[in-house]
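Input chain follows. Return C-alpha cells only.
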Amino acid sequence: MAKSKSLIATEEVVGAWAIMPTPAKADASNWRSQNTVDLDETARAVEGLVQAGVDGILALGTLGECATLTWDEQYAFMAALIDSAAGRVPVFVGTTSLNTRETIRQTQVAADMGADGTMLGLPMWCAPSIPTAVQFYRDVAEACPEMAICVYANTEAFKFDFPTAFWAQVASIRQVVSSKYNSMDRLLQDIAATRGQIKFLPIDAAYYGAARMEPDFCNAFWTNNAVCGPAMVTRFRDVVAAAKLSNDWGEAKIMAGEIGHALGTLFPNGSFKEFSTYNIGLEKERMNAAGWMNAGPVRPPYHIVPEPYLEGARESGRRAAALHQKYSAGAEAVAAE
C-alpha cells in the first residue's frame, strides 16, 4: 500500500493516543518460535480502539517489543496495524534500531506501507551527546521526508536525558511533530524552547496537570490504559476538553486520581527505574489481566519477571478494567436517555 497522505502537522496531534503491544501467540516466550505475532488479535484490537474513538495509535515501542521481534514479524505486524486502521486514525509505528542506516531503511518501508509516522527512539548502544542525538533525527527526517516523527523520549531505554537544549534544536526539523514525553518538571520550559513546534504528549495520568499548566497547547496524551479498556481514556479526554471551556475541573481531577490509582501497583516498590527493568513483562501482564485484549506472553529475553512484580501488574490491570466498565456503563446510560 503506497503512502499518499500529506505530512501530519503538530496541531493535528490531539486527543488520546493509544500505545499498543505487539500481540503474541501462546508459544512466543520460546526462543525456538517463529512468526509469533497474533495478527488476528492485532486486527481485533485496532478495530476496537478505532470504534471506541481513540485519536491515534502508537506501536512498536518498548512494550511493543520492538527489540525482540524479527524483521519479518515486525513487517507483518505493521501491515496488519496499518491495514486494520485503514486511514481512520493516524498510525505511528516504531522503527528504532541500533544505527541510523537501519532505522532509515525500516522507516522508508513503513512509509511505503502507509504509516503516518514513526515513534522513534535513539540508537541505544552508546549514550549519545546532544549533537549526536540531534543529527540522528535530522538524518532520518532528510531520508524520509513524508514521515512524521514522534520522538520516543524514554530516558532509561535510550541513555539520554532529552534536555531542553536538545528540544530547542530538533524543533527546527519539520517532521518532528510530537513526543512521547515524561519530563513533566520541564514541560513549560520545553514548550517555550520549541516555540510550540512539538506537541509533548504526557502519559494519561499526568495529562490533567499538563492541561492545567498549559490548557491551550496541551490537548493530547499517550495512554497504555486504552488497551486495558478504552472507555476510561476517551471519557477523560472529553472531560478535560469540557473543563477547559467551563473552568470546572472537578470531574477531570477525580478521573486523574482514578487513573493514577489504577497505575499505582504497576511500579515495583514505587520505582520507575525498577519498572523499566521489567517493563515489557509488567505491561503485558497488566493488559492480559484487564482482559480487553490478549497481549499474550513476552518474547525472550525479557520474559523473566519476579512473581510479586507480576501480581502488582495484574492488580493494576484489574483496576483499569473496572474503570473501563464504569465508564462504559456511563456512556451507555447517557446514550439511552
